Fold this protein.
Amino acid sequence: MTIPSAARITISGPAITLVATLISIYVVSQFLRNSIGVIAPNLAAELVLSAAEVGLLSSVFFLSFAVVQIPLGMALDRFGARRCLVVGAAITVAGAIVFATAQSPAVLILGRALLGIGVAGALVAPLAVYAKRFPPDRFATLAGLHAGIGTAGSLFATAPLAFATATIGWRNSFLVVGAFTMLIGVLIAVVVADDAPGGSGRRETLRESLAGIVEVLRLPSLGRLFAMNLVIYSSFALVVGLWGGPYLTHIYGYSLEERGNLLLVPVLTQMIGLMAWGPTDRLMRSHRRPVLLGAGGTAIMLAYLALNEKLTPFGLIVWFAAFGFLAGFGPVLLAHGKAMFPPHQVGRGLAVLNVASMGGTFLVQAVSGLVIGQFPATQDGGYALAAYRLVFALQAGIILLMCLIYFGSRDPMEDSVEDASPQAADDKKRAPGATK
C-alpha cells in the first residue's frame, strides 16, 4: 500500500530536523517568558523596583508579544514562517543586549518589550508550518510535542538561571541567551522553507489580508475560545514566571538556589503534561472536554493555595507538581482553534487566539502587581502573605468564569462524532427530502 506523502513526512529525516529547529526557538521564548520569576528579588534590589514595577517588567513582555500578533498573523499568511522567524530572532538578540546592559528600570522594560516582540512568532509560526506540512489528526500531538519539549526553556529559567545568576550574573546570562538565539536564527534560515501562502503562488494583497482578519473574527465561537485563551498561559506564568520566586522567598524564606529548584518542579511536570494532554482530544473525541478538565483542575489548585496559609515543604512540592501538569492542557485548546480555521487563515486565526493568551498574561501580571502593592510591606521589605493569597484566589475565580463562557463553544470534533453516529445516520435518512 502506498503511504501518503503527508504521513511519510512525519518520520523523515528532514521532518525531524524541521521540528527540532522550530522547537529550539520556542525554547528561547519559554525561557524569556519565565525568566523574571527567579531573579525578580535580584532585579528589585539592584534597580530599586517596586512590586508594581516588577509586575510591569514581567508583563510588558506579554503586552508587546500580544500587540504584534495580528500583524504577525498577516505576515505569516503573506510571507511565510521562515522570514518571520528570522526577523524575530534578530529582534530578540537586540532585546537581550538592551536588557543585559540596562542601568535603569525604563531601559530594562524596553529590553523586555523587545524580547516579547522578537519571540512573538515562536509558537504561531511553527504551528502554521505543522498545519500545512502534517496530517490534520496529528496537529494536537505535534503542538503538544512543540510545547512540551519547548518548555525546557522554562526549565532553564529556574534552577539553571539561578545557578548562572550566582556564577556569572543575570546580565551575562542574558548575553549568552542572545548569542544562542543568533545561532538559532541562522539555523532557521537554512532549514525552514517558505511555503506558498494558501497553497498557491499568488500572495494576498494587504486589503485581502485585512479582510481575512475580519473573517476570522466573525467565526462562530471564536469569542468563547478567545475567553479561554485569556487564562491558558496566564495562570502558569503568574506563578512560575513572576510571583513564585518572591512568594517562596518572602513567605518561606528560601534562597535563590532553593526557589530555583522548587520552581523547576512545575516546569518538569508541565513538560510531561503538555505531551500527555496533546492526544487527549482523540481519546475523548472532543477538544472541549479535556480543556475544561485541565482548566478546572488548575483553578482548584490555585484556590487550594489561596485557602491555605502555608504548606509543608513536601506539600509545596506536591502542589507545584500537580499545578504544572494540570496547566499543560494548552495544546488541546490550540487544536480546537485550528480546527475552526480554513487552511489559508491558520496563521491569522492562531495569531488572534495568541493575542488573548499573551494579552491575558499581561493583564494578570500587571494587575497582580498593583494588587500586591496595595498591601503594606513586611519588616524585611517583602510582600504580605494575604496579598499572595488574594492574587491566587482572583486567578482561580477568573479561570472558572472563562470555563463557563467556553462551555458553550462549538466543537468540530464533537460535531463530526455526532454526525458519524448510527442515530445521526438514521435521522438523516428520515429527514424530509432524503433519498429513498
